[in-house]
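Support case: user asked for a sample of complex input and structure output to validate their parser. Sending the pair below.
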Amino acid sequence: MDGTAIIYTNNSLQGPSAKTAHGLLRHGKRYRILAVIDEAHAGKDAGSVMDGKPLGIPVFGSLSAYLSSGLERARYCIIGIASAGGRIDPAWIPTLEEAIQAGMSLVNGMHHLLIHQPRLLDLAKEHAVDLIDVRKPKPASELPFWTGDIARVGCPIVPVLGSDCAVGKRTTARFIEAACNDRGIRTEMIYTGQTGWLQGGKYGFIFDSTQNDFVCGALENAILECWEKERPDLILVEGQAALRNPSGPCGTEMLISGRANACLFVHPAGRTHYKGWEHLGLDLPPPEEEIALIRAFGVKTIGVALNTRAYDPVRLSDYRDQLQARLGVPVALPLEEGVKSLVDALETFLQQWNQERATFT
Amino acid sequence: MDGTAIIYTNNSLQGPSAKTAHGLLRHGKRYRILAVIDEAHAGKDAGSVMDGKPLGIPVFGSLSAYLSSGLERARYCIIGIASAGGRIDPAWIPTLEEAIQAGMSLVNGMHHLLIHQPRLLDLAKEHAVDLIDVRKPKPASELPFWTGDIARVGCPIVPVLGSDCAVGKRTTARFIEAACNDRGIRTEMIYTGQTGWLQGGKYGFIFDSTQNDFVCGALENAILECWEKERPDLILVEGQAALRNPSGPCGTEMLISGRANACLFVHPAGRTHYKGWEHLGLDLPPPEEEIALIRAFGVKTIGVALNTRAYDPVRLSDYRDQLQARLGVPVALPLEEGVKSLVDALETFLQQWNQERATFT
């Protein structure tokens, strides 16, 4: 644990762009979250705003409201929003400056780096706090190339892919990780995004700020390191974007270089277009099509999770049942009902996998 | 044109790892190549070593042999080899130092940068020459994110993909670019690798040293810039790696974010395993399978080129005819017979595309 933190979400706590904040509110080993700063939801509980489940973490309408509240002073202020292209919005700067002046170190998961902002850099020096840029790229000399050694891993590798960005791939993976471990299946999740690092993930790397040629080496390396150190029963891999996401297709890396043995898939029920690209008329493909595409890369999908944000709650259960019948694999509603059916599917898969291995060796 | 250059290939001029050198010998607008330094092929003609076609460019066994030959002194010494992982081999250093001492600037397409080698940096300062690291990554603040503006491009976009690395995707694209222009189809190739830049390509970027999240934005940006400035009839895109290459799958970026309207495909006849991964037993899929996978991403392949390095020349024509019959599209042998059949296929495709556009608008 690095210490206490507050999360700044600039009015977005309820929307999908605050997915970094949501990840930290749901799961965190690196920071203990004391409060959220979000003008639009001042006075509420952060968990209630996020998904209706109170967490005992208050939302303040401004940084000064938090500072004068008498609440414990946090060591870190984390930017909890993910913007397209990873730009730092100029609207955030006054709050960030105020946080530095109050003695807090800043934690930033954007591509645009705080250390490239001279005014923030000077202010941080003056107040002896740190600017932590999670997505600061590593030079090639510190990055591994893919070697094929991943073949040594002795447990199944299962990525959690999805049909779009911001559908809950990481959240689903974290739920499954916890539920598997509760059931005695020793499970680790390889993080591939900045939120995974912020959550205190032990094994992983930040996919999208890695030079393209080293992405698969970094993925292999994280999986191998996890296998060598933990010898788990199961390794989950956090997916990124989607196989056909127009702004950055992703997934073949996990399927091919990450030697996936099976796959889990997250779909946003009722979402009709790729998020953020509605104006381009880019239809979101049905989950059957994406799952067939994953199969064309040699990997079978053994369970599906639904993100229900955009779906009528009354019709949800019917939709789920129909999809389940069409796909022939369990379809779970993680936020509403948990991930039991997916863990059942994983358990069956693990038994088969171990049996086949025992036969071959 | 930046000036005169020699190419250093450290005994590899004949092999596929010298593909950077081959690209510069075949096509170059940035440098005029005076000589190649390659101990194994001293005294020969560089073109004869490469593919049996003399170019009037001599090979010297060492840099000193070149320097004492009386030949014009080049301004640049280019590293002409592509190593896995882009490492600078310590064996190259003495020659690189000698080149600096002879007053030549070094040009390096490896991921590992010359400017990170203190001894070379000091020496370059002392001799007032440049160290040019082509794959030096750009910071996020200089990189564009994908916007969807690529939909504005008013001509077909056709990537040249392939079943593996080092099969001749760029070479095939360059041949087709030249042949199309000869026929009056104004054609531009978007380069996506360091050799494309070294060849003097006007539009493009270096895929594998770009932070992953910006690859598709950089691709879109290069295509858009080419369209805005040249208004060509056709844009070709140099492919990278392969859809299922284990060390770094690639291609969905070109197909989806690059809005491919059709595809050309290069296959190495007779290659049985992914190059460099033979020891892992990773079979190279047959071209039919890869072409079906490209189709699953919504793009039709309209022609195939064969790399014939690993195939028995006597049986080549039969293999080509059979593949052509199976695929139902022209299969060309670019090095042996040129790319006429592929240009024919492109011309037909262009006519259909323009007709459909005229009907819709």
